[in-house]
Specification:
It is built from eleven helices and eleven strands. The protein has helices spanning about 10-20, 40-45, 55-65, 85-90, 105-115, 130-135, 155-165, 175-185, 190-195, 205-210, 230, and strands at about 1-5, 25-30, 30-35, 50-55, 80, 95-100, 120-125, 140-150, 170-175, 200-205, 220. The strands form two sheets. It has a six-stranded mixed sheet. A five-stranded parallel sheet has the order 2-1-9-10-11. Helix 10 links the parallel strand 10 (about 200-205) and strand 11 (about 220). Helix 3 runs parallel beside helix 4 and helix 5 (about 105-115) runs parallel beside helix 6 (about 130-135). The N and C termini lie close together (about 10 Å). The relative contact order is 0.16.
């Protein structure tokens, strides 16, 4: 099955390899690229001492750039959304890592249930604010430090249109609401997909699915759990 992946290049390559292992033909169309700010992460770590929160592996990449200066902080508790980000954090040397199996809201509830407070959230821009909102509702204090941003990558609309017309994918994978919005801002994309009656638009979560136009609701599928293994199981 030909599958279109619209993740940033480095994470898209990992997904492409998993797709090949499953017997599919991945096609990459990066619509954003991460710009990491390791200095912002370093300053925030030095100014705090409580638990750390990550909702994306992009924050792990920012921490990785700190090298040995990260070592004094590896004993701090760390909370993540998803086991993939948790595994990446353990790979840096963090010893106490807990992951929610769901969304940012579920992560906030996990943190509150653990009794953790005075948290450092190493975040990105743009981002959904579900986690921050829910954590505040639960009475927890949080310090925010943006340590990466996602810059849009604008593909040639004619190239995208040609691809969708001449080598049409059977499915498109959506990992974030932001990338979905970028995808449907490309001229002609929605119109061309409407002409593909068997196209499958597979989303990581209900939040991500909000980026899919209502005109394409018949093609929408949502992963039973918000992780890549569950997402790819739908193919």
């Amino acid at each position: 099955m030909r599958v279109l992946v619209i993740r940033p290049a480095h994470s898209g390559e990992r997904t492409a390899q998993r797709l090949r292992e499953l017997g599919h033909e991945p096609v990459l169309l990066p619509l954003a690229r991460p710009v990491h700010d390791a200095d912002a992460a370093a300053r925030a770590l030095e100014a705090t001492s409580g638990p750390i929160v990550l909702t994306s592996a992009e924050a792990v990449h920012a921490l990785n750039a700190l090298g040995k200066t990260l070592e004094p902080h590896l004993s701090r508790r760390l909370f993540t959304v998803g086991e993939a980000t948790a595994a990446a954090a353990r790979g840096l040397g963090f010893g106490s890592v807990a992951a929610s199996s769901g969304s940012g809201r579920e992560l906030a509830e996990l943190i509150a249930a653990s009794g953790a407070d005075d948290l450092l959230y190493l975040a990105g821009n743009p981002r959904a604010e579900t986690f921050e909102t829910r954590l505040t509702e639960l009475g927890r204090t949080i310090r925010l430090a943006e340590c990466y941003r996602m810059e849009p990558v604008a593909p040639d609309p004619e190239v995208v249109a040609s691809f969708l017309t001449n080598t049409a994918p059977a499915a498109v994978l959506f990992y974030s609401r932001q990338s979905g919005r970028h995808f449907f801002h490309i001229p002609q994309v929605e119109r061309l997909l409407l002409q593909m009656p068997k196209i499958r638009l597979i989303c990581l979560s209900k939040t991500v699915a909000e980026a899919i136009p209502s005109s394409l609701a018949r093609a929408l599928e949502i992963s039973p759990m918000p992780d890549e293994k569950s997402l790819l199981s739908l193919l």
